[in-house]
C-alpha cells in the first residue's frame, strides 16, 4: 500500500516496516506535511518478509524499521534488513518501542543511521532524521563516484568518440556501474554511435525532476549489450536552453547510482563551463591540426581560470589530422601539461564502427588506448601481454622528447 507524493517538491521515498496499522497511520500523518522543500512518499510493509520484498523491488531511498515484527524480533530484524538495504545503498533508521540503550548502541554499531524511540518521536524528529540520513548517505555515495567530463577543443576532433569508448572501457575493465551522459544538448551523437534507440532523453529527466528516483531513472536510460547505461541528448537544435541549475540537480540525484559517470559536454561553452565543477577530471580532446591545438590551448586556460587544477585537466590527442612536427616538449610548452593519451588514426575501422552503430573492435588502437586510460583512472595494473598496453600508451615518435633547447626556455 502507498500514499501519494507532493509532486511540486523533491520527494523522498520512505519504506516503513511496522506491524501496527494505527502507528503506520500516525507516521504517515507525521510525514504528510513534508519538510520545507522536501515531501515524503511512504510505503508500508507489516512484516519482515514484506519489507524485504519491497526493498528488492527498488524505489526505496530510506527504511524506517520497527524491530518487533510478527516474523522477526530484536537485533535479528535489523541484521536481515540492513544486509539487503546495504547492498542497494539504502540507509536504515530504527523506530522501535524498545527504549534499551544497549540495543540502540548495538544497532548503531552494526550500521543503523539512527535509533528513535516511539514514545519520544514526533513529526519534526522523524522528518529531520530522514532528511539527515538521506543527505549523509547521498554525500557518502556521491564522494565515491568518479565523474569524467569530455570536452572537444573544436568540432570534429572526436570528443564523442573518446567519451563513448572511454565509458565502454570503464565498464569492461572495472565491471562497475557506468553512466554515459550526452550533455551536448543541441546536437549530441552518443545514442547514434552506441547503437541505441532511446525512448527518452535527458530532457525527460529534467521535466520529471521532482519524482526522479532510481526506478524512474532506470526507465529513462538505455542499456547496451555490456549493460552500460546511456542517457541521450534531447537534440534541441536551437530551441530554448535548459536551465543549468536543473541539469546540475539531475546529475546530483543520479550520481549515487553509479561508480563512474562519463559526461560528453560537447565544446566549451556557457553550459559545459557551468558543469565542469561537477567533474573530478576533464578530458580536453584535440586533433593535431594547428587550429584545433590553438582552441585546445584556449580551453585548457579557461578551465584553469574556472578553478580546475592542473592535475584535473587531461589532454587527449586524436591523430585525425596530419600532424605537425611537434615534440612532447613542444606540447608541454604550449599547454603547460603532458599529453595524457594519444589516439592513432584508424579511419577505416572508425567508419565501419560508425556505420554499424557500435564501438570499434577491442583490437583497434583506440579501444586499447581507452582501455589503458580506464585502468589508469581506476588504479588497476597494466595488462602485460604481447603488444602490451604500456607500449601502446607510449607516445608516437613525433610526440617524444626532442633534442635541443626547450623552446619555452629560449623565448622572450
Name the features.
412 residues; alpha/beta; Rossmann fold; 2 domains; eight-stranded mixed sheet; five-stranded parallel sheet; 15 strands; elongated
Structure classification:
alpha/beta
The largest sheet, given as strand count, sense and whether it forms a barrel, is:
8 strands, mixed
Assigned CATH superfamily of the largest domain:
P-loop containing nucleotide triphosphate hydrolases
By DSSP (H or I, 4+ residues per run), the number of helices equals: 17
Q: Kindly state the mean pLDDT as a whole number?
A: 82
- CATH arch. level architecture of the largest domain: 3-Layer(aba) Sandwich
Under CATH at level 1, the class of the largest domain stands as Alpha Beta
CATH fold label of the largest domain: Rossmann fold
Question: Termini, distance in Å?
Answer: 75 Å
Description:
With 412 residues, the chain is of the alpha/beta class. The chain has two domains: 10-141, Rossmann fold (3-Layer(aba) Sandwich); 145-402, Rossmann fold, CATH 3.40.50. It contains 17 helices and 15 strands. The chain has helices at 21-32, 48-57, 75-87, 101-110, 123-144, 159-174, 190-194, 202-207, 214-220, 244-254, 270-275, 290-305, 328-335, 347-356, 365-378, 389-393, 407-410; strands spanning 10-17, 38-45, 62-65, 68-69, 72-73, 92-96, 114-117, 146-152, 178-182, 222-223, 229-231, 260-267, 281-287, 313-318, 339-343. Strands 10-11-9-12-8-13-14-15 form an eight-stranded mixed β-sheet, with helices on both faces. A five-stranded parallel β-sheet has the order 2-1-3-6-7, with helices on both faces. A hairpin with a 5-residue loop joins strand 10 (222-223) and strand 11. Residues 1-8 and 385-412 have low confidence and may be disordered.
